[in-house]
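AAA+ ATPase domain-containing protein, pasting as requested.
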Amino acid sequence: MFSFMEMLKSLAPFFTAAVVIVLSPFVKERIPYAVSNYLVSTFNMWLARFCTPHITVVIEEKGELKSNQIYEAAKAHLHTLISDSTKPKRFKVSKEDRQTESTIDIIKDVEVIDYFREIKLKWKLRTEKEEYRYSPTKKYFELSFDKGYEMDVLDSYLDDIVDRYERIQKEDKVVRIYTCKEKNRDRVVYPEKDRDRNVNWSYVNLEHSATIEKLAMNPEQKEMLKDDLDRFLGGKDLYNKVGKSWKRGYLLYGPPGTGKSSLIAAMANYVKFNIYDLNLTAGLSNEDLRSILLSTTDRSILVIEDVDCCTKFYDKEKKHYTFTQSGLLNIMDGLWSSCGDERIIVFTTNHKDQLDPALLRPGRMDVHVHMSYCTMDGFKILASNYLNIEADHQLYRQIEGLLENVEVTPAEIAEELLKSGGTDVVLGGLVKFLEQKTLQKAKAAELKELLKSDDNTDVDVEGFVKFLKQEKLKNAKAAEAEQLLKIDHTYVDVDVDVEGLVKLFKQKKLEDAKAAETVQVNIQKNQN
Ligand SMILES: Nc1ncnc2c1ncn2[C@@H]1O[C@H](COP(=O)(O)OP(=O)(O)OP(=O)(O)O)[C@@H](O)[C@H]1O
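Structure tokens follow.
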């Protein structure tokens, strides 16, 4: 089959003949100059277009192991190109739920034209299925232009595109969070060279507005963190000089709900690095982990959450432990330190005491950050975030006193502050919540003391547990009553006969329903 180009090339003699006829003195005399001029220039254009050989550059999405920066830059460039000006004949439009504007994108095999100086450039997105059934589809761009412009395109045009991409990445970057999809790994055996390509990251934009300033944390800790990140970002020469790889390890530890994940998002927003969230519970072998590490990009944060759980994985099928903390240490000491630049690795744990001491040795994790229960400083930040309180409030002293005596996480406080009602009502609710926690703490301590005492023959543990259960029931009933009454916390008094009240309102609801039913029946009767 003839290709379109070949067909046009074969038509060239006919065009030549046509132009000769048109330009013969006899014909020339009879047609206006403008028309003959137009015909000649059109002919030259056709000739140049179909007879000049051109070059095609292939830009693959991935290199041997990592993604190809020129591909990413080209993708971003084409995206702006077709959004702003040149629309191809066909293009995609999409809009996700929370997006404010729709997104325009290119479709594979559809040509997008760009101009650089006097050079016309044609872009096409291509895809290709690889030889192995489950291996991911290969994507690449084809960039075609006339022969003779190779230097301009490779040295100037593509360099410009990459520079612009890097600048945008640094200044205005939308941070992405990548999670690793490891599908089909067990179903097919890949040749060694293709194993790394099977690491399939999917991403979403990190729409977490967390900033270090907005976190409920000790102010000195925040300053230390920001300084440390700044020094790390600007430390290329220093790292080179001392012969250390340009990486930084952070260990975030503390109880659940103290903001470890929020801090990671805030750090990513601060340094504008993408996050690679590594889920170690997926039963990875050390070899898998090696592939995953190699597939991440520079200027990124690799996150390993709940690192204390690493030793607990037992692969039932393979009947052996897969990934271990010592595997992680080997990776960190060897592979991690030699792959890529400007990398941050963050480990989180709720149980620092359960970590392999080798992981805590100086030099492994450069910075240890303790995420603690909420302090008054932290609370004020949360109150400013959630309730816009910038100055003092009459309940602050009471709250401060309560916070000194009870362990409450910023997550718990945040939940209370999210409740509906004005500032006074919400803070009143928080006071009640903290008082309840204080009471629970006292009771738990009492119980602990009783259980610890040598002379525990007389301790009525069962009775005490029953009492606690009753208290819980009462609280649940109070919540139910509150729901029925739809009133604020402030009016639920401790002396209220909650059970009686619930009963009363249930009865009232029943009566209301019955009355509504009677009205309905009467209407029906009248209609009939
Ligand atoms: N220090 C904090 N400052 C501000 N908000 C916080 C803080 N800690 C927790 N929160 C709030 O609580 C929610 C849950 O916190 P987060 O997931 O960051 O805690 P975590 O320590 O990572 O918990 P886990 O160990 O269970 O993963 C956050 O979305 C945020 O709204």
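Note for the archive: The chain has five domains: 4-51, 56-172, 180-185+195-370, 395-459, 461-528.
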